[in-house]
Task: inverse folding
């Protein structure tokens, strides 16, 4: 295995960690993207007690940065997927991350970084069902790859 | 009390910058390529040579690199009796209970993650450049979040 193939992944991971550090030191928050998005969209607003604008600013940075760096570095090359599969996937990810209080960033990067047992359990669970889904899909003749 | 409700506050600018840096990390790492995510989840290819595709360990390096930093960040960032630079207080998760909602939600998330190859961060990062696939995924993601939020409120 040529490890240099994985340097961009490692470097990208370090950059993700640094962005999370900036949010912790600057705003005192964990960088959980599903939580930031769902709170920005559907969070209950207590009259005047909280300023949630930072969530929208983070999301604007993420979307604008995504367009900018995809243009400069590498554009996403989507997997061929039927629309109904993408729709079911989106529903599951949206529903599951709100129900389970986090996703890959909130549980995987920040939660494990905080050494939270809850996040360790969540991360092992979504990894396990992710592995199982790819495995079962291939076995029933609908390979995802 | 908030010192400022202005859109251009230090707090908001730092959040914007963090979003930009996070997006840079996601694109650089390859996590906005669904093929890499599915490749990592394709453990069958590691166990059984007749399996379609290959196993791609990239995602492990992304998470490993991020954890190298966040383990240090959360260990050294002082929290008791201190304030963050641009907010009144640290507001970190406090729950410690492991319940069926945590595990059930994470289980459903993992299935959807594998079906599309997108988790919320990379999907949002790709929303302007990923074509119709990402738009369908994001629209469904928002509906799923809305539904779960509604259920939780009852």
Result:
């Amino acid at each position: 295995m040529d490890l240099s193939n994985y340097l961009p992944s490692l470097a990208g991971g370090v950059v993700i960690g640094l962005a999370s550090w900036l949010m912790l030191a600057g705003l005192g928050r964990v960088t959980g993207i599903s939580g930031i998005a769902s709170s920005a969209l559907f969070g209950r607003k207590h009259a005047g007690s909280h300023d949630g604008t930072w969530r929208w600013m983070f999301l604007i940075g993420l979307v604008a940065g995504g367009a900018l760096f995809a243009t400069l570095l590498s554009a996403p090359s989507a997997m061929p997927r039927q629309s109904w599969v993408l729709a079911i996937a989106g529903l599951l990810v949206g529903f599951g991350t709100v129900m389970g209080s986090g996703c890959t960033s909130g549980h995987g990067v920040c939660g494990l970084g905080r050494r939270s047992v809850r996040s360790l359990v969540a991360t092992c669970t979504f990894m396990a069902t992710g592995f199982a889904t790819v495995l079962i899909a291939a076995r029933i003749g609908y390979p995802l790859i | 009390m908030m010192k400022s409700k202005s859109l251009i506050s230090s707090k908001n600018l730092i959040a914007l910058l963090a979003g930009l840096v996070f997006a840079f990390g996601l694109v650089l790492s390859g996590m906005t390529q669904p093929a890499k995510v599915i490749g990592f989840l394709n453990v069958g290819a590691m166990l059984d040579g007749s399996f379609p595709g290959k196993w791609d360990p990239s995602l492990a390096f992304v998470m490993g690199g991020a954890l190298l930093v966040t383990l240090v960040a959360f260990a050294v960032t002082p929290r008791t009796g201190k304030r963050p630079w641009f907010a009144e207080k640290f507001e970190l998760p406090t729950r410690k209970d492991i319940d069926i909602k945590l595990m059930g939600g994470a289980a459903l998330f993992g299935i959807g993650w594998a079906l599309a190859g997108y988790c919320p961060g990379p999907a949002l990062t790709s929303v302007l450049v990923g074509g119709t696939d990402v738009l369908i995924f994001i629209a469904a993601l928002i509906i799923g979040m809305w539904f779960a939020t509604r259920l939780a409120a009852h």
